[in-house]
């Protein structure tokens, strides 16, 4: 099963033919700029479409701390996204309180573990909306 760096490499090499469909869900690649290093970091994330946007969840498996990619996009919300062979620039934002419940249901429907992750942590797990730029 693909995971981590191997997942990113196979996804990039095959334009998502390997790695987009994963564990009965779908995965995109999110590239953020390191808030301290300035280096690019690419992370495979479960996603769903919501209108023209892509939605991901900063769960880190219910860890008490946010994932590094989420901290990076808070510092610089301009990100690069790859969905299969399509690559585009997006602006990332955390879903607000009025839209989060609907988006959480959408994401939990595709990966039911999110509810369990939320139960493991005191932080509200952020739902992130990726809006295509341009």
From TrEMBL:
Catalyzed reactions: oxidized coenzyme F420-(gamma-L-Glu)(n) + a quinol + H(+) = reduced coenzyme F420-(gamma-L-Glu)(n) + a quinone
Region (Disordered): 1-20
SUPFAM superfamilies: FMN-binding split barrel
GO MF, one annotated term: coenzyme F420 binding
Organism taxonomic ancestry: Bacteria, Bacillati, Actinomycetota, Actinomycetes, Streptosporangiales
Similarity comment: family membership: Belongs to the F420H(2)-dependent quinone reductase family.
Protein name, UniProt field: Nitroreductase
Domain of life of the source: Bacteria
Cellular compartments per GO CC: plasma membrane
Pfam family, one: F420H2_quin_red
InterPro entries in the record: F420H2_quin_Rdtase, Split_barrel_FMN-bd
Stretches with biased composition (Polar residues): 10-20
């Amino acid at each position: 099963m693909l995971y981590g760096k191997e997942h990113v490499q196979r996804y990039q090499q095959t334009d998502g033919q390997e790695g987009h469909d994963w564990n009965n869900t779908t995965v995109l690649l999110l590239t953020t700029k390191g808030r301290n290093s300035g280096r690019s970091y690419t992370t495979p994330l479960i996603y769903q479409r919501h209108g023209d946007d892509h939605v991901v969840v900063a769960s880190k498996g219910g860890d008490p701390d946010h994932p590094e990619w989420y901290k990076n996009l808070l510092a610089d919300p301009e990100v690069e996204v790859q969905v299969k062979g399509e690559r585009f620039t997006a602006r990332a934002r955390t879903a607000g309180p009025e839209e989060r419940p609907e988006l959480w249901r959408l994401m939990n429907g595709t990966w039911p573990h999110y509810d369990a992750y939320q139960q493991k942590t005191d932080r509200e797990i952020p739902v992130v909306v990726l809006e295509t730029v341009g």
